[in-house]
Amino acid sequence: MAKADNMLSILWMLRSGRKITAQQIADELEIHIRTVYRCIDSLCASGAPIIADSGPNGGYRLLGAFAESPLMFDADEQKALVHASIFAREAGYPFTEALERAIHKLKRYTNEEQLHQIELHGGGITVLQPPVSQEIRSLLRTLENASAHGITLKMTYSKGRGQDASVREFDPYSIVHWKGHWYAAGFCRLRQEVRSFRVDRMSGLELTDHRFERPDNFSAKDVLLGGLIPDTGNAENLEYVIIRGHEFTLNELCQHWLFGHTLVKRLPEEAHFRLAADSLMSYVPYFLLPYGKALTVLEPRSLIMRLWEVAGGMARHYEALLTEMKTYEE
């Protein structure tokens, strides 16, 4: 039996709560008593609080509280768990309090050196995310619970922009965190199709008596991005876009959610995309404007014209503002 298997077996024997001598362990596992001593030393070095009582009624036992902890983690696993908790907390993870309790238990069952390392690594990572309110966290908990148990929800939802809220029944297949926002993806019984909804636009969720089963092949990522990125199979609605620029600038552009998912060809100083024709007249120019002259659109002409219109409009806006400020100063 490998040393790791011996250590785990010894730990499980000690979790029974009774004292066990080294000879009893050796007899039970059919190993040499010196192997037992080496395994006990390794377990103690790993942070297992094993107590050795000497005398006629002596033996090994575990510190009482440790019996509630079924797993041990090495240094890298401990670091990863602490870092993951930081990401989850800052992203608005709905079960942050339970996660914090788990990390507290992790710290409680470590030795002094391990705890020192956990604190060092925990203080070495920072995550910047928009704050998530308690109301949103409460909605996320309801959505996650309904998703896990297949419970249909009655949802009040507002599309924003001053539109009236609508009430619909919704089967939440999954919750999704993307670009600083939480979404719920699932089957909308009002529209009779799979859709995604922003959680911060939900004003109420109520459990219903209806039940659902999540499809085996469901992908929340596909649903969310599918509502933003056009179907590449519909060539009539797509425009071929060619953008020239420095390789590093193009690399940054291709990390954008839209351009990264619509890239069809990449050259050292050129990138080719297939984008929805209507998007070229709406939001695409505003994604490109921050790059200024670092990027040059070569095709199509319609996007070039639209960029010229948008940039010209901004120039006229600030020209008028400067004129107004100059008049005020005089």
TrEMBL record:
Domain WYL: 139-206
Domain Helix-turn-helix type positions: 8-61
GO molecular function, one term: DNA binding
InterPro entries: CBASS_pafABC_assoc_protein, HTH_11, WH-like_DNA-bd_sf, WH_DNA-bd_sf, WYL_dom
A Pfam family reported for this protein in Swiss-Prot or TrEMBL: WYL
Tree of life domain: Bacteria
Keyword vocabulary terms for this entry: DNA-binding
Annotated PROSITE patterns: WYL
Protein name per Swiss-Prot or TrEMBL: DNA-binding transcriptional regulator YafY
Species, as recorded: Paenibacillus lactis
Taxonomic classification: Bacteria, Bacillati, Bacillota, Bacilli, Bacillales
